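Duplicate of #3305? Posting structure anyway:
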């Protein structure tokens, strides 16, 4: 025994440890260390295996779309770009359109009849490349809906077959080379082939026709409409730009030639039907309804981060990409207000826009006595189209009908003009008049095209419209040539920004 000095009073006694006790302690420590190493090794193995699995799944999703992905309405979960394109192509193969003339039975033209085909533009593959494959785990908890432009073509040979089967008097083909090729092939028939704008004008004024449906996109439809009016044709109008930009020319001309302008838009058709048999001077105001689009209830802060895919998710209507974006910005509703002004000969102050989210009431007319007549129906464009073609008849139309017993509610809201500025811009352009409506329309058209190409953000659409309107020097009473020149000026101005 030995003693040592301590800071404490007294002494410390050291007792030697027994060998077996010492071995036990050492063994216990080694066992603990061994278990610890095994645990660490297992954790490392699990981590490595997990990393390998995550990397493997990430690699898989570099060639496949995430779970919960929808492209153009097709479930694309765990599919390659090629597989998605095959399904898109399959939908095109099943394409069918019903063609009905007055007092005649409908005829169906299928995709096979015209060899209607999908052509890969690489858009689906490009969409896959933007997908960050290592973020696949997040896809398990969310869904993504995308829309891509579907490039299609139809066979010139099939067009020839259609000509030979139905023997139309006139066929208009925009491309001059294609028109010449078709003319050569059918020279043994009595069908005449025309091309370009001159061809459209000739078709618009074609003898023995009662009505012209103008559904050409953009301001391209103005000149054929004017030509048809001069030829005494009624116009089934499905082209907003015609009246928005040239209403001051079209409406006086229609009155001069005694032709009817029959609206195809669901909102204008609703007003038109509500006014049937009523006296215009008794109208107090028009109530144009809006669905509110996909961003109803959103703040401006919310809109800073919205995507193209978010914008194309309309809650009620299935429409083309351009008009769907216009619905989201409320520019479309603004254009409808400007068009309604000309169609029904009322002031802008007599037109009120209300949000009706269920899209059951398509529009209303309030009279001086406070009474209101509304047109209701399902959100389906077949009804207004048919009514325009068969006016004043209400023909039988198959399809879904409103069931008021099951209809839970019909609600109304004020349009969010402080957030979705398309509507106040339209009222401003309409009140200024002259060439300004053309500026609004063309600026929006260009801005939406940039947005669809993913070159600008959603809110940039408003900035482009406002900037262009501020930069324009108004032409008070523009001719058709000045309207078209204004459109070109707008495009050049935006491109130079």
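Output from current build:
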């Amino acid at each position: 025994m030995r003693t040592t000095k301590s800071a404490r009073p007294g002494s410390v006694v050291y007792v030697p440890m027994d060998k077996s006790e010492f071995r036990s302690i050492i063994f216990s420590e080694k066992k603990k260390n061994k278990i610890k190493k095994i645990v660490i090794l297992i954790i490392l193995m699990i981590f490595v295996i997990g990393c390998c699995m995550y990397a493997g799944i990430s690699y898989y999703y570099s060639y496949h779309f995430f779970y919960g992905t929808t492209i153009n309405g097709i479930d694309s979960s765990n599919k390659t770009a090629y597989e998605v394109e095959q399904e898109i192509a399959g939908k095109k193969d099943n394409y069918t359109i019903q063609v009905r003339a007055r007092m005649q039975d409908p005829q169906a033209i299928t995709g096979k009849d015209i060899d209607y085909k999908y052509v890969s533009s690489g858009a689906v593959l490009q969409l896959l490349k933007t997908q960050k494959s290592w973020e696949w785990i997040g896809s398990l908890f969310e869904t993504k809906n995308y829309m891509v432009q579907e490039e299609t073509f139809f066979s010139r040979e099939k067009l020839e077959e259609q000509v030979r089967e139905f023997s139309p008097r006139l066929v208009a083909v925009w491309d001059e080379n294609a028109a010449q090729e078709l003319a050569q092939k059918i020279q043994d028939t009595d069908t005449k082939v025309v091309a370009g704008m001159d061809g459209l004008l000739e078709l618009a004024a074609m003898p023995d026709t009662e009505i012209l449906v103008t559904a050409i996109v953009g301001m391209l439809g103005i000149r054929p409409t004017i030509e048809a009016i001069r030829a005494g044709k009624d116009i089934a109008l499905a082209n907003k730009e015609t009246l928005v930009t040239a209403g001051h020319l079209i409406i006086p001309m229609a009155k001069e030639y005694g032709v009817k302008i029959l609206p195809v838009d669901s909102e204008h058709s609703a007003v038109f039907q509500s006014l049937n048999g009523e006296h215009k001077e008794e109208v107090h105001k028009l109530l144009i309804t809006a669905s509110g689009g996909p961003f109803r209830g959103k703040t401006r802060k919310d809109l800073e981060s919205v995507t193209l895919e978010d914008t194309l998710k309309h809650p009620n209507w299935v429409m083309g990409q351009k008009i769907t974006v216009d619905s989201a910005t409320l520019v479309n509703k603004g254009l409808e207000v400007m068009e309604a002004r000309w169609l029904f000969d009322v002031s802008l102050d007599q037109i009120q826009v209300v949000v009706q989210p269920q899209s059951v009431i398509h529009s209303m007319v309030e009279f001086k006595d406070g009474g209101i007549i509304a047109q209701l129906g399902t959100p389906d464009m077949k009804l207004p189209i048919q009514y325009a073609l068969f006016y004043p008849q209400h023909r039988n139309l198959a399809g879904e009908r409103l069931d008021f017993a099951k209809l839970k509610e019909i609600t109304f809201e004020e349009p969010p003009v402080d957030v979705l500025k398309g509507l106040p811009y339209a009222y401003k352009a309409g009140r200024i008049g002259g060439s300004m409506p053309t500026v609004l329309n063309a600026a929006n058209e260009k801005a939406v095209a940039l947005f669809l190409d993913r070159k600008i953000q959603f809110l940039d659409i408003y900035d482009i419209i406002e900037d262009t309107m501020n930069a324009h020097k108004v032409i008070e009473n523009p001719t058709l040539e000045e309207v078209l020149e204004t459109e070109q000026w707008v495009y050049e101005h935006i491109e130079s920004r």
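Confirmed duplicate; merging threads. The first strand starts at residue 3 and ends at 4. The chain has a mean pLDDT of 85.
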